[in-house]
Each structure stands twice: as structure tokens, then as C-alpha cells.
Specification:
The chain has two domains: 173 residues, Roll (Pnp Oxidase, Chain A), CATH 2.30.110; 196 residues, 3-Layer(aba) Sandwich (Aminopeptidase), CATH 3.40.630. Helix content is 24%, strand content 33%. The longest helix has 17 residues. The protein is built from nine helices and 18 strands. The strands form two sheets. Strands 1, 2, 3, 4, 5, 6, 7, 8, 9 and 10 form a ten-stranded antiparallel sheet that branches. The chain starts with 16 loop residues before the first strand and ends in a 6-residue tail after the last helix. By secondary structure, it is an alpha+beta fold. InterPro entries: Acyl_CoA_acyltransferase (IPR016181), GNAT_dom (IPR000182), Pyridox_Oxase-rel (IPR024747), Split_barrel_FMN-bd (IPR012349).
Length: 413
């Protein structure tokens, strides 16, 4: 616990106050920015800044030319730091009782200017790690010149208070009969889909991938014929070159891309669906040559009902009728049934796509029926969809058959 002081003891709403050290640290670690208050030449100043906590010290990032950093030279700078996480808006029947759910930390003290280069470097490393665990090892560390241009304030966490509100609407009993909506609108910070900078070829780091459940985790899967890797925007050029064939796109749900840029848009659509939790997308690489040969996905992912569908699969023509597609499906089925505990895996294909239907049947799936006018084709016509599925009871025999077939198939040279 932090000991209460005159500056951290409120005059009202004392029930919302806490001096719990763990609660304060949790707020400081979750929030990404803070307000730094100080006085310069008798005038109040408040600046937004970045912060990171290391132990019981709060570090604040700044520039060597900024007012607070200049003022902190010598004996230090008296400051007040406020950090808030907004959890919700509270709508009451009366305007007076509208409120917010939040968790906030206020810290008072004298901040010192960090002059030790090792301490400054440790702070910057911790700040980078805060935005992504492992990020510091995947980036260039600051040079001596950059360190010299960066100023850091260190505030010992001694005089600290936590204020929080949670729960529902609190209003006068006389207002409860009013015909106005009341309740709480929860708020949270959510990450959008990562947007790579121009020229980036590195795959998306694991800490930026949204894995809601193991079912949504696009792990790399290895076989003798094929390797499935998480789909990435950097794959556009290779994927376009491998699949730039009218016959490949004949029965697919999107128009054939005419340029690598349009293939990048197809990838972007897949990754947007993946970010929403609707899909897990892989590229297929030939295990023997490393060449990118196509893509495939999970979709209709339902961990509660323990079911998933396999689709959005297309493969360059040179790799048709090789072991690549068979083993890719084997890897996806093995992950679904053996690793994730699925009880059902489904496929959907255009009723016109006879070749795809035959391939699915060779996997050991059962044709369950036709979904009439199920989806719209790129040309605007309505497609009837043939639905197949394999259950966990059928999986052992299907797996044995697929493995035996692969033993008779020579890897691609």
C-alpha cells in the first residue's frame, strides 16, 4: 500500500479512492499515455507524454529541449502525473447523474532528469517492450546521438493514489419512473488491423496478430510436400506470380487479380476477415523448393460448437495433382481434429466446380447437400453451393487413407 498524504487524500467521494500498489501498477501498465503537470516561471503547464513503469519508478519520455526536461536539471522538478483508463460511459435518466466508469492514478513527487545512459536505455527498451513483447529485439537500438537527443524524467512512486468508478447507474429514486433510457456503454481500446509501411517484407510479428482462441491462431504447419505459413501482405508478389492463371480463378468467389497490387487487395480482404475473427489464412509453400504455390484458410470458425470449414483454397496449376493439396488438407484436418478438438470440418464449393467436388470426396468427406442460391459469383450470378463435411468419427479412416496416398506420391522436385 502507498501511505496516504495530504495531497492524495480527497475531500469527497472517498469510497472511490484506493492506495493499493498493485492496482496502481496495473493502471500505469495498461495505459499508453499520461498527463504531466508542472509549473514553470509561476505558470501551470500540462503536457501529454508517454510513460513506462519499471519497478516503483515511473519514467516519462520527452525531448531535451522541452520545458519540463530543462526545468528538471539540478534539484529536479515538482510534478503531478495523471493516468486514466476509461472503461465506460454511464447514462442516467437525469443529466446530473451521468458519469463514467474509469480507473485513474495520480502521482505526486519530484522528478529527476535521467543522466545515466544505461538507465535511459533501459527505460527506452521497456517502453518499446510495452507496445509489443519482443519488439526491442526486432528493432535497431538507439544510437548515442539519439540517446543524447532523448530526455527522460524519473518519478519515484511514493505519493500515489488510485481513483476508480465501476458499476451501473446511480440516481435519485424520484427519477426511476422517468421514460428515458439508462445504462452503461462499455468502452475499451481495441487494436485495428496492422498496416505495414511501404517496402516492408518482414512478416507480421506475433504480438500484432490477433489470436482470440487457439482456433484463430495461424501457426505454421509443416509437411513433407507442403509448408503452411501465416498469410502476410508481403506475399503479394509471389502469390500473384504462382496463381496468375484464368483456370485457377474460374470458380473462386473473387475476381482474378490482374496485378500484384490487386493480389495485395485480395490478401488485405483475407487479413481483415482474420482480424475480425472470421478466418485464419495461410499461404502454401512447396516444402522441396520453397516456392509459394497457393493459399488456403479456415473459416466459419466456431470453437463453442467445435466446428470449422476449410476453403478459400487456390493453387497454381503446376502444382495440381501433386501431393501438395492432399497434404495441406491433411495438415489442416490434423490440426482441427487432433489439436483443436473439432467434431466437424466442412467444405463448400460451387456446384459447377466438378474438379473441386471430386477432390473433396477423395479426402473422405461426405456430401451433405446443396445450398441453393447460397452466394453470389463475381459476375453477379447466384451460385448453388455443394456442402461437404467430415466428422470426428470419420477422421481416423480418412487420415489413414490420406497418409497411404501420400506415401505413393513423390515430393515435388
Amino acid at each position: 500500500m502507498y501511505p496516504p498524504t495530504a495531497r492524495t487524500t480527497p475531500h469527497r467521494s472517498r469510497d472511490r479512492m484506493s492506495y493499493d500498489r498493485a492496482a496502481a501498477h496495473a493502471v500505469l501498465d495498461e495505459a499508453y499515455d499520461c498527463a504531466l503537470g508542472f509549473t514553470v516561471d509561476g505558470q501551470p503547464r500540462v503536457l501529454p507524454t508517454l510513460h513506462v513503469r519499471i519497478g516503483d519508478t515511473l519514467y516519462l519520455h520527452g525531448s531535451t529541449g522541452s520545458r519540463p526536461l530543462l526545468a528538471a536539471r539540478g534539484e529536479g522538478l515538482p510534478v503531478c502525473v495523471a493516468v486514466t483508463v476509461l472503461d465506460g460511459l454511464v447514462y442516467a435518466r437525469s443529466q446530473f447523474h451521468h458519469s463514467a466508469n474509469y480507473r485513474s492514478v495520480v502521482a505526486h513527487g519530484t522528478a529527476r532528469l535521467v543522466t545515466d545512459e544505461r538507465e535511459k536505455l533501459a527505460m527506452l527498451t521497456a517502453l518499446v517492450e510495452k507496445v509489443g513483447a519482443g519488439r526491442s529485439a526486432q528493432t535497431r537500438p538507439p544510437s548515442r546521438r539519439e540517446l543524447a537527443e532523448t530526455a527522460v524524467l524519473a518519478l519515484p512512486l511514493h505519493e500515489v493514489s488510485v481513483r476508480a468508478r465501476s458499476g451501473g447507474v446511480r440516481e435519485d429514486e424520484d427519477d426511476l419512473h422517468l421514460p428515458h433510457w439508462a445504462g452503461v456503454l462499455p468502452l475499451r481500446v481495441t487494436a485495428g488491423q496492422p498496416e505495414p509501411d511501404a517496402g516492408v517484407t518482414a512478416p507480421l510479428p506475433a504480438y500484432l496478430r490477433t489470436a482470440r482462441t487457439p482456433w484463430h491462431d495461424s501457426v505454421t504447419l509443416h509437411g513433407e510436400h507442403v509448408r503452411l505459413e501465416p498469410l502476410d501482405p508481403a506475399h503479394a508478389d509471389e502469390l500473384h506470380a504462382a496463381t496468375d492463371d484464368a483456370e485457377v480463378w474460374q470458380h473462386l468467389g473473387s475476381t482474378r487479380p490482374s496485378t500484384p497490387g490487386e493480389t495485395a487487395e485480395v490478401i488485405g480482404t483475407a487479413l481483415a476477415a482474420q482480424h475480425r475473427g472470421e478466418r485464419v489464412a495461410w499461404v502454401q509453400r512447396c516444402a522441396a523448393t520453397g516456392a509459394m504455390v497457393g493459399t488456403t484458410s479456415y473459416y466459419e470458425i466456431d470453437p463453442e460448437r467445435r466446428s470449422v470449414a476449410i476453403g478459400y483454397t487456390y493453387l497454381g496449376r503446376p502444382w495440381w495433382r501433386t501431393g501438395i493439396n492432399t497434404e495441406a488438407k491433411l495438415l489442416l484436418l490434423r490440426r482441427a481434429f487432433d489439436d483443436l478438438g473439432a467434431v466437424r470440418v466442412a467444405w463448400h464449393t460451387d456446384i459447377r466446380n466438378v474438379r473441386s467436388q471430386a477432390a473433396i470426396e477423395r479426402l473422405g468427406a461426405t456430401r451433405e447437400g446443396v445450398l441453393r442460391m447460397h452466394r453470389q459469383r463475381p459476375d453477379g450470378s447466384w451460385r448453388d453451393t455443394v456442402q461437404y463435411a467430415m466428422t470426428v468419427d470419420e477422421w481416423p479412416n480418412a487420415q489413414a487413407t490420406l497418409r497411404e496416398r501420400l506415401l505413393r506420391t513423390a515430393p515435388v522436385a
